[in-house]
What does this fold into?
Amino acid sequence: MKKGIHHHQIGDSIELYLLIKNVKKGTASNGKPFLTLQMSDKTGEIDAKLWSVSPEDEATFVSSVIVHVQGEIQDFRGMRQLKIKAIRPTSGMDQVRHGDFLPSAPLSPEEMLERVTQYIFEMSNPKLQRITRHLFKKHQDKFLQSPAATKNHHEYVAGLAYHVVSMLDLAKAMVNLYPSLDQDLLYAGVILHDLGKVRELSGPLVSEYTTEGKLLGHITLMVNEIEEAAKELEIEGEEVLVLQHLVLSHHGKGEWGSPKAPLIKEAEILHMIDNIDAKMNMMDRALERVMPGEFSERIFPMDNRSFYKPTFHAPPIEY
Amino acid sequence: MKKGIHHHQIGDSIELYLLIKNVKKGTASNGKPFLTLQMSDKTGEIDAKLWSVSPEDEATFVSSVIVHVQGEIQDFRGMRQLKIKAIRPTSGMDQVRHGDFLPSAPLSPEEMLERVTQYIFEMSNPKLQRITRHLFKKHQDKFLQSPAATKNHHEYVAGLAYHVVSMLDLAKAMVNLYPSLDQDLLYAGVILHDLGKVRELSGPLVSEYTTEGKLLGHITLMVNEIEEAAKELEIEGEEVLVLQHLVLSHHGKGEWGSPKAPLIKEAEILHMIDNIDAKMNMMDRALERVMPGEFSERIFPMDNRSFYKPTFHAPPIEY
Amino acid sequence: MKKGIHHHQIGDSIELYLLIKNVKKGTASNGKPFLTLQMSDKTGEIDAKLWSVSPEDEATFVSSVIVHVQGEIQDFRGMRQLKIKAIRPTSGMDQVRHGDFLPSAPLSPEEMLERVTQYIFEMSNPKLQRITRHLFKKHQDKFLQSPAATKNHHEYVAGLAYHVVSMLDLAKAMVNLYPSLDQDLLYAGVILHDLGKVRELSGPLVSEYTTEGKLLGHITLMVNEIEEAAKELEIEGEEVLVLQHLVLSHHGKGEWGSPKAPLIKEAEILHMIDNIDAKMNMMDRALERVMPGEFSERIFPMDNRSFYKPTFHAPPIEY
Amino acid sequence: MKKGIHHHQIGDSIELYLLIKNVKKGTASNGKPFLTLQMSDKTGEIDAKLWSVSPEDEATFVSSVIVHVQGEIQDFRGMRQLKIKAIRPTSGMDQVRHGDFLPSAPLSPEEMLERVTQYIFEMSNPKLQRITRHLFKKHQDKFLQSPAATKNHHEYVAGLAYHVVSMLDLAKAMVNLYPSLDQDLLYAGVILHDLGKVRELSGPLVSEYTTEGKLLGHITLMVNEIEEAAKELEIEGEEVLVLQHLVLSHHGKGEWGSPKAPLIKEAEILHMIDNIDAKMNMMDRALERVMPGEFSERIFPMDNRSFYKPTFHAPPIEY
Amino acid sequence: MKKGIHHHQIGDSIELYLLIKNVKKGTASNGKPFLTLQMSDKTGEIDAKLWSVSPEDEATFVSSVIVHVQGEIQDFRGMRQLKIKAIRPTSGMDQVRHGDFLPSAPLSPEEMLERVTQYIFEMSNPKLQRITRHLFKKHQDKFLQSPAATKNHHEYVAGLAYHVVSMLDLAKAMVNLYPSLDQDLLYAGVILHDLGKVRELSGPLVSEYTTEGKLLGHITLMVNEIEEAAKELEIEGEEVLVLQHLVLSHHGKGEWGSPKAPLIKEAEILHMIDNIDAKMNMMDRALERVMPGEFSERIFPMDNRSFYKPTFHAPPIEY
Amino acid sequence: MKKGIHHHQIGDSIELYLLIKNVKKGTASNGKPFLTLQMSDKTGEIDAKLWSVSPEDEATFVSSVIVHVQGEIQDFRGMRQLKIKAIRPTSGMDQVRHGDFLPSAPLSPEEMLERVTQYIFEMSNPKLQRITRHLFKKHQDKFLQSPAATKNHHEYVAGLAYHVVSMLDLAKAMVNLYPSLDQDLLYAGVILHDLGKVRELSGPLVSEYTTEGKLLGHITLMVNEIEEAAKELEIEGEEVLVLQHLVLSHHGKGEWGSPKAPLIKEAEILHMIDNIDAKMNMMDRALERVMPGEFSERIFPMDNRSFYKPTFHAPPIEY
It folds into this structure.
């Protein structure tokens, strides 16, 4: 199989199919319009300028179109940029599909669905189990498509599901090591904590914040839904309140979007597990692009740090 | 009428009825048990020690009991303290009632009810009006009794109602000065913003945080209730979302308990009006106790500042 | 009447008179000099590039010149930019005046002067009244021209006067609602609080900081002037000190430029009124440019927030 | 077996052996000297006052003495305090040993030694393994006795060893879940990260900071030792530098005592594992003392939060 | 000569003359009034309780009275406290004077006056020289008595003068090392920077903040005076403005009380010199009380640090 | 002698030899590659664009090459930029040497070596003296070449040595003014505090951080070396620990890279002397480029302040 865009280095000539994810129009210093195309395949992304475009070009090269491109990878202020030599939109003849260009989770939707279902099945507190199952089923389809965030970590198709499955595995390990933890509460918290993102974000391909996402946020949206679910399922008892607290507090503190800090042990652990899985994902992605002995690019949400890959660690697989 | 406890100074001998608000037991350095009584009447509070108490004393002098006390006001580390010379519980003979000892709002419950009702009546957006009326009626009784906070500002019977009425008057003045403001939205926000406190706090006399108050807080509780109210009243439209945002954001930012900062003009103004009325209340109470040319005691939630009463301002009425 | 620059959208062809507010020279990537013109009329501002300029162009298109322009409004990184097709300086023939191009306060200077004078007239404390009148008269002419700030809020001709008049109206409403406030002190504080800006800023058209503005600032300059005014008017008494404190503390705390936090009730209220009026102005201006259902551009001094205009609010008048 | 001090409640009369951990002398308000005794057994601690002490009492009741006490548990400002009715030092007749009164790790020193040794054995990078083994052996005896901190978490005999063993188990689980992690580096980091505490703290029973602990701290002390160990073992290569970085950065950032933030993936994970294990320990200890439906006492190093034990969780075993 | 109070240790019996600096009345747990006396001589301070006082005692033992005391130095929560055995007020017979009990600067007022005068004489810029001389002469008497602060550093009679003389010496050394510095400006800044304290603080013996000290502060007071002095002396030119800036900015930034940060090189250096001399004074005083190998008591304004005296440094002279 | 690049202003035509310090490649908006050359001589730096470069150009104009350039100085966004008219690499014929183009310290290496040696000679504590001499000799050659930082202050050849010599002179002045200071400890601290930079930074010409510089930093590297030096020289005693503490704490606090704040008087003074000398250097360099009455460019590490040169100060020498 052909190498993806991520595997090419500065100086390479390339000829590839790429998906246009985003287009911005500008005016060059010679006064002519140009387009900045943000393009990607499953392996990564690259930007390119399309100079002196005609109105037809503007109508052709729009978001979601798959194009065939020839060009050369250059350096632009320390970032890779594609210098386009030839570009055309694809047709049925090219036999390419959108699904081939979107990065996605390492597990299939079916597998992830099965694993979450299995975790719900293992819960023994019927109140927590029923609320969790109810809300999970309600949003299951979008859950299996949604990214976990618009950027930073797990920002790909089904990224949210993959993030949750990883966290469930980590939760299971924690429960084994620290038996005082309430397994059911922790599993329920993991499954529901970010489920409000299916309403906060607009969708899998072009993720943007919805109005209710901006004005209330995924945390408040899901706390509301737990309330309603309990009403609908006629469930009473402190489990409802406690589960709402877990979702409410999972960002850890006020500055990070949680109006209440975790005040229950499993809430604190949920916050930490969430953190670990997000950071592992960010560090892995940054480090898999650099050779041993090099520093990665900066990771903004991790205090803008650049991570070092020791010389005694393995190089990336593709090289 | 007799002077209240607030109007006595260090050195005064007093003979008064007082309500016991809180009792703590301790052991004196001679090994004997003593009680610290926190007592109040409508004008203020004072602490007193009851030394070498018997088990009967402990059973007699408990929270909510009205007592008749003789003693002298002394200075204890810069605070007034009552040195008890004689103390006895009251009986029917004394003809005293709890209501006489609780500080309360300057307006009667009936008057405050009428004024809030009038403001609701003036609203012209039917969706905002119906949700506001529905939730206000639901919690009306507790609303007319609840303090606005456990301490700091408006912490007396019906303090919440008085705070809301003052804010409504201020909102009306603001709408007149800045006609671009949406009057209905601002009124609705003012009436509902702290209504969740009837669930967050335990009640008018001994205000403590409830478990749901600690785990979710009055903001989240009311956002949930707006959602339900809209369902129940079959109201749809952005008004529901926007009103939830006003309640959600009225603390201004994450560190202060709002998971979203105000993103709507009326939400920002609601936050500022809330602030002004709370601060006016705190400053007025601190300054009415000092003479011109003096500094007040420190006000903790206002950066622990001590305020100055200029010499050309009037002395407190009671002196 | 013709639509102003603010009322045109991306894609519009325009033909307008505009005032050049600022010019920067640069070198294009082809090595040729170009000018970046910041132009405005009463309704708003727009930037434009003038490519490949000759030395004559550079001498012609300078700050304060009124030009006639033809062009098209384009998008440049999310901001509107004017693509110039033709541009010429105006002459007497064009019958245009500077005053027509500067945004200014909604009230006439005469009206604002009368209103401030009326407020001073209403003061009953003769010491505060005399100092306020003396300093107001001294700087009256510049006061009626000065912007309230170089950017952010009320940054137009007579913006300072309009800001002060609005604050006085708000102060009056506050005094009515909270009768414990000292009306005279509050009015005096409002009128003098920013009066030092007539020395801190260079003037109405091209507002920059003066050297004494940078080294001392408008707060210290006015505190000095109150001292001198009291000397000159032979006024003694705590009013002088208290009024200096109001001006000194009106930014609220050290980080914001006030060496003393407000320690007098009216000083705290002055700070809050100042805040409200500035924020109302910023939010109104940002929101009047967007349609219902949209978010405004970010407002930097309000924590860089972008405000939402609910769908049930009215669209801007011009559309 | 008899209940320990921790299992008694306010109001209980007790008769117990206790170890004096700390003694402070004071003067009562009647002018007589008294002692404040901090006493403990394996289950917990309690304070007591010994009034009107003679010089002989002062010489008898000193730190490290085991005493036999009769008394009653009382409430003192929300804390339990022991009112002493009778107290005497113990002799050989009492058949009590210091070891019976010191709280200690749930695992025996032998078991912990074996488990750390096993983890070292599992390492496959010989450089990391040799340095780790060398330093571990060097400090092994003190390591098996030292607390993990003077207060807050694992502050008991062998608390450091138990903390490290728990972290190793957690590290192993993490390596299984995230195979990109370098197991050897993580294990080495866990074993060495706090080993400098054997020099920073004075010893197991009365832990205080040493002068080198205060002036350099355990982090710098261990980084120095890794350098020396590598020299002594004639080990070269980046492993030495990277291992020093792990120890150096394990507090996460400058404010928390690490001059470098983690810049290697395993360093970041080491920091997070350390955090989790310390917090689990603090929360477990706080919660095991409260009944379901109650809030724990505040945990200072966790932002002074008080944690809630849900009503559907089990009560403490002892009740 | 007899040893001062500072030179006695816990356990010592003492018989001394002491000055009462401050008295607080309290009520003991047996219900009787007692006095807390803060007493001092030139070498230091000590607190004592006077139990069960009569009204005559309260009238006798007041602030500024010199007493003869017998007693024993005891430990109270880590602080030395004097247990009084006998105490009486002094009369003419005792031949003691207030001046003997106040700590004061190491140099005589005459010497300090001469040295400041000499520095003013060395200035060659006549404008700076005349303003400095004018203001120095105006406040010279109080300047030679005032402490530099109410606590923390140089808080003794003439502490301000000693602080200024030390800073002038340091300024001279700096000017020699960095010849680009403007000597005159720096000298003027040093002499005037804290001169406003003669108005901010009430006096040498019982230093408290005056009302104008609290509402405006010594910085603003002196900036005002420089303005007036220039008017009176008919001095114009940027020197006036620049000198005001030096005084205004000498606390370094807003949080520390300077509305403008230093924007002139000499202003920055003035701020640093001020800092160094204050810190040297605080560290010296803390360290001269401890033996080599010990840590000093904590110094609150230096981040509450406790400083170490290395074992190879000399012990305090008195031991 | 010819004027250097620093002495030319916008609009000047120049013909000069310059050293290429850094080269970045980019792609112009016309799609052609261009180079951004960062060039310097002893007096300063300037950037230039080289448009439409050929592969030969790219191979010719690389870092460390000395070129002969003709061009014009233009303004680019407020910065000077060189518009190249002709450029060629130099050959032996041009008789230019690298040393002529690198800014360097005002003192010769020999002189600085002699002065540091003299200060070491003056030390009387043999332990401190031997460790200092040993480490200084070990790194002496690099020390005399290294910059003190990659940017901000003393970032030129031998900048580190010049910074240390200035600090030693300042230390000597301090010791004279405050005789309680330990001269030897302070000298040793000054000489060693930044010596680890010879390992942290890559070298004099193109200073970058080394891997050990990034992962451990110059502070930890030197603390390690002091440990080793003491071992090697068989020196024992608290001097070793105390000297390590001085180096460890010289950045003042955690956020600034010191895991321990200064806890010894000389450590605090070392931190302050370091600060003063760095700031004097930054302010002098910024101010020597502006005329009296102007503000300098912003100095980022000094809170981004812009400093004012008073009108009564002298203009730069070159004008």
Q: What stands out?
A: Chain B has a mean pLDDT of 90. The first helix of chain B runs from residue 55 to 60. The longest strand of chain B covers residues 13-27.
